[in-house]
Specification:
29% strand; 6 helices; alpha+beta
Length: 211
């Protein structure tokens, strides 16, 4: 089984830096494969708690190289919840790559473990609108949610604004999955590039290590 690793995060940073420089990213140093994947960008300011800046991926299997290249940029620049990440934010960024595995159909909406499983919910609301959304495994645990709180939050994420009832929760089709992930801060990326390529990455208008 393929696990998330450092080279995948490096490739995501390479892809974003290359975008700002209008260049092509260096070829990735990990093996091709096909898996569902996500790319998450967070911003760390003044040593505080990392804040989400973008998170987009696919629940369908994608070729890893094309997938990480596409979603590194999509999550950084086109997550509708946030303004596009600017080059000047690079020194404050932290990137996490996730590879999703072990999809299982749950028996009911509570048939999963906080901190172990990511969850995908699918349901039809009272207006017969089909809705779906997912949380990666680390989200409910990080938020300190119970299963019910996570489900209710996910229903809101899916765009449902009505009254959440137990009967509606019981209509949910839930798929659970697991993931491997790897996280790297920009400063660690810079150090890694210096060590492996002999020179730090440069981006117009960005001072390396300027936090």
């Amino acid at each position: 089984m393929v696990s998330a690793n450092r080279e995948m995060v490096v490739y995501c940073f390479d892809t974003l830096v290359a975008h700002y420089n209008s260049e092509d990213a260096a070829p990735p140093a990990f093996d091709e494969g096909q898996h569902p994947l996500f790319v998450t960008w967070k911003k760390v300011v003044n040593g505080g708690e990392p804040r989400l800046r973008g998170c987009i991926g696919t629940l369908e299997a994608r070729c890893l190289i094309n997938g990480f290249r596409d979603y590194a940029l999509t999550s950084a620049l086109r997550d509708r919840r946030f303004p596009p990440i600017q080059a000047k934010e690079l020194p404050y960024l932290e990137c996490t790559v996730s590879i999703l595995t072990d999809y299982e159909t749950a028996n009911n909406y509570l048939d999963w473990e906080v901190g172990k499983h990511g969850i995908i919910i699918e349901f039809t609301d009272e207006f017969n609108t089909r809705r779906s959304a997912t949380y990666l495994p680390e989200v409910p645990a990080h938020e300190g949610w119970t299963k019910v709180e996570a489900i209710d939050s996910l229903m809101r994420k899916a765009g449902f604004n009505g009254h959440i009832t137990e009967s509606l929760r019981k209509r949910i089709k839930l798929t659970r999955y697991q993931s491997t992930l790897f996280t790297m801060h920009y400063s660690d990326y810079v150090s890694y590039i210096k060590a492996t390529r002999g020179a730090a990455p440069s981006t117009v208008g960005v001072k390396i290590g300027s936090h």
